[in-house]
Amino acid sequence: MAERVYITGMGMITAIGDDVAGNLQSLRSKQSGLGFTSHLDTIYKEKLPVAEVKYTTLQLSEIAGVAGIDGYTRTTLLGLIAMREALAQAGITDVQQEPTAFINASTVGGMCDTENVYFDIVNPDKTGDFLKFIDTLDCADCTQRIADTIGITEHIATISTACSSSANALMYGARLIKAGLTRRVICGGTEALTRFTLNGFNSLKNIDKHPCRPFDNQRNGLNLGEGAAYMVLESESLVKENNSVVLAELSGYANTNEAFHPTSPSPDGDGAYAAMKDALAMSGRTIADVQYVNVHGTATLTNDVSEGKALQRLFGETVPKFSSTKPFTGHTLAAAGAIEAIYSVLAIRHQLVFPNLNFTERMEELYVAPETQLLEGYPIQHVISNSFGFGGNNASLVISNYEG
Amino acid sequence: MKGKCYIQGMAAISPQQTFEGDLSAQPIVISSSNMLSCVEPDYRAFIPGNSLRRMSRILKMGLTAALKALQDSGIETPGAIVTGTGKGSLQDTERFIKEIRDYNEQALNPTPFIQSTYNAVNGLIALQQKCTQYNNTFVHRGFSFENALLDSMLLLHEGKTDVLAGAFEEITTEHFYIKSRIGQWKSENISNDTLYQHFSPGTISGEGAAFFLLSSTSTNKTYAELAGLKMLYKPSLEKLDTALQTFLKQQGVQPEEIDLVLTGRNADINYERYYHVLDTRLGNIPQLPFKHLCGEYDTAGAFALWLGAQLLKTQQLPVQWFPMLQSPPAKLRNLLIYNNFFGEQHVFMLLKAI
Amino acid sequence: MEELKKKLKVQIIEALNLQDTRPEDILDNAPLFGEGLGLDSIDSLELMVLLERSYQIKVEDPREGRKILQSVQSMAEFIQSKQPA
């Protein structure tokens, strides 16, 4: 019998809060993190809204406790801050006490810093400080620096499946536990805003010039965001042994592929439907047990049709409350899955449904609409959290109340 | 973790003639620069023209190696697709960075951005073979492919069948230059067949794509069994030595039962000490290096696995590829692979003949 | 107009790397997407880049883009309508 997988720690930093408590407060007070960038060097500075973490990279290095040490990119620093909180919440002071694996997620590694010095790096006539960023471009850099800083020496990995990356990191970690390869694993992702991704999504013409409007008939694209989030996952036996405080259970998950188009989901949401259905089946629950879905809801034309259709197919006439929290955090790509998994835990623990901001008009393709109000005292036992990405990568997680 | 993992089909595109036919007939491909490039097949035999026109080099290489491995196994649609790549499509990343600058962030072509995404190759394989199941991409230097393998083994353990696992990596002149600035390559130009005569700081760079169809049951087509896999992150020499012993013990294999060790030795004096652990612990076991054939890159372990499985299946060494070989082992049953990537990610794999 | 269409066909072939297509294979009114040349939504984005880079015409809304990019004819008409008389 495979072990159950429990969430015993969480840490995060996003545009709406420096930690989990800060995020919860902003969600409750409908405080969006969207605005114009002050750190990114781009011609879209005052044109395209983003959800930026308000600190400079230097300030982040101070918060992360590594000020003055070379080679920490913004991606790494965001991750390190979230990691420290997750460890603290799980009561882990020394990661060496129990062999601890680390599964990270990243979409463009240290691009945030390398893109500013890239043309110096490739220019033989230039030399200087920038050389310390040479080895930070790839995705493993942030993972290893975080691991090295906090002393993780066991199994490490980095996953990159675009917007579903950290949901897949959580899934991989849970599977390592279930297979008995580790009893504790820290999973999540980190993402810093870059000119590269901003221009990438803009070249696909799916960035909205206004704050994004998920599931709205007038929606016109996403806004990018940055942040990091990690969860400490522990096996049932380790939890019992240590008497760990359990925040929630990661009870189900599934990964499917659209096999439809490099950047677009299938119009009927085949992959999203299969991911949610399989994840729910694994958790041993039925559709009647789900009270809230934290949707991927990027507000792109195609995602919301596809995901909405999938919700209708799975739940029929009884679609539970659902909302996209992307108008708060922006789309944080590799970090999104873990950030929203934490929001799902918060929804259960505080009995909250978070509002889907900026919604006014139901989509003509759908008969369902997202929840626009903050619902307090809403009885939530099980949440589905969706993360869908380029390359047709779909991931759904089921997070359940811990019944002890 | 219970369950077996058998290689049922495979394919490799590499700096050697590995894509077609009988290895024993292929001469070693020699390069006089320190940047080995793949011998590329005719992609049109695998990818429809309308898809091919947009694809950059590594996408073609990755997709074609994947399709050939499927073809080799006789499986059209795999039960899962899991890959590893350290750097993804460098060509597209470089192109998009330049276009952002050259066009001042305006009127940008989205194709290089899309293709720079690390999971682009996975998406293409899924798309072309209509595989709607599990799909994952690992991007962690010398653990990229190995995590893809571990994930595949987990999938087989969980009851999935026919898992397609693979790796792909390219080197560009620009990236070669970038990494030369932190001393990854030898300062003197050498010919790859003489690599091990040039012990000095740095090595030679390489690239390649290799894919494997993995299954929990063996058939008469099976190349080899992947019996064990162990990753070690920045181990000390002592830890590496202990881990090697534990690994063999866990596999129920005595050191003397190993017939051959494929080593990632790359004549880089900075990391040679790790290979000495192997020399000491497995002193009497024949060793063969493989980096003179494929060069150094994040997912060179996939080339080693391909080579090892090939040797076990054919029970034949392409002697012309191994000028350093003194006496080939009479019989190959247990083959150990040890590799490390610039001293950080260390991997053991144990392959068994069927 | 005829000159413009001829030029557009050459540019389309080059931009989308349509190796086996000659300019004369593309009929003025034949649909570029779906049945016709078999182009997809990424091609449509690339064609919008072509309009922007070669003709300085910016198409903001992808839905509008789809109409403009129906055929070489519609593209040429659109370009002409945007150029100073």
Distance between the termini of chain B: 21 Å
Label the overall shape of chain B: globular
| Rg over CA atoms of chain C | 12 Å
State the secondary-structure class of chain B: alpha/beta
* Main beta sheet strand tally, sense and closure of chain C: none
The N- to C-terminal Cα distance of chain C equals 13 Å
Instruction: Tell me the number of strands of chain C.
Output: 0
Supply the number of helical segments of chain B. Answer: 11
Largest interface: A-B, 63 and 57 residues
Which band does the percent of strand residues of chain B land in?
15-25%
Low-confidence stretches of chain B: none
Number of E-state strands of chain B? 10
Structural class of chain C, by secondary structure, is mainly alpha
Alpha-carbon Rg of chain B, integer: 19 Å
The amount of helix of chain B comes to: 25-40%
Uncertain runs of chain C are: none
Topology (SSEs and partners):
The complex is a heterotrimer of chains A (404), B (354) and C (85).
Chain A: E1 5-14, H1 20-28, E2 34-35, E3 50-51, H2 57-63, H3 74-89, E4 100-105, H4 111-121, H5 140-150, E5 156-159, H6 165-178, E6 184-191, H7 195-203, E7 224-225, E8 227-235, H8 236-242, E9 248-257, H9 270-283, E10 292-294, H10 301-315, E11 321-323, H11 326-329, H12 336-350, E12 352-353, E13 375-376, E14 382-388, E15 393-400
Parallel strand pairs in A: 3-7, 4-5, 4-6, 10-11, 10-14
Antiparallel strand pairs in A: 1-8, 1-9, 2-3, 6-8, 9-15, 12-13, 14-15
Helix pairs in contact in A: 2-3, 3-5, 6-12, 9-10
Chain B: E1 6-13, H1 49-52, H2 57-73, E2 80-84, H3 90-102, H4 111-116, H5 120-129, E3 135-138, H6 144-157, E4 163-169, H7 173-180, E5 208-215, E6 224-233, H8 237-250, E7 260-263, H9 272-281, E8 287-289, H10 291-294, H11 300-314, E9 334-341, E10 345-352
Helix pairs in contact in B: 2-5, 8-9
Chain C: H1 2-16, H2 41-55, H3 62-68, H4 72-82
Helix pairs in contact in C: 1-2, 1-4
